[in-house]
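Hi V.,

You were right to ask for the full record rather than a summary. Here it is.
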Amino acid sequence: MTALSRRLFLALPAAAAASAVIRPAFAMSEPQQLVEKSRIAFLDIITDPAFSEMREYVKRARGLLIFPNMIKGAFIIGAEGGSGVLVARGQGGWSYPAFYTIASGSLGLQIGGQSAELVITIMSAKAMDAVIDNQFKIGGNIDVAVGPVGKGLTASTTTNFDADAYSWAKTEGLFAGISLDGSGIFKRDGWNAEYYGPNAQPVDIVLKGKLTNKNAQILRDALSPY
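Predicted structure:
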């Protein structure tokens, strides 16, 4: 082995070790990416003039479900879903986020594709309890109405809070709207444990405030004005 080859051979372990140390510093976990995307999606919707009435609902909401990238794709058989976060309003402001997923399926002659930013304002204790208990089914045990969008009217003349929750979706694609009937919303135990520690449960994160993660403060700051 030449002197140059020997130096290169000895340098390889050190380079590999340095790479192993440096790489995680630039990597963002999937739960953290979702927190950031949820922040962006919430701000994108609530600052849109077409969703001006949503602000009053958010201010009165017990909690929010934010799904930054709902996907709906169909060719004969349709399916929709996405990952999101749940936050609840407390005496100290908005809680830290717990991780959830929404999923549903449908049959029919459908061709197209759609993505959407979705916010669900949770208005009743019944709906909040259903999310926490992992028993939230839209159109089943929980009434979710579509929030008024683009009417050009003030919230004071159109706002009502009769439903358990209201959905606000900003969509793009070939489908004209987004249907949530039959959708189930379920906690993501794996992501909650990854972000907060073993056995982390939504009730301890969003209602009791026992679990925190400083990296989620960016989302809480975005929600704080509302």
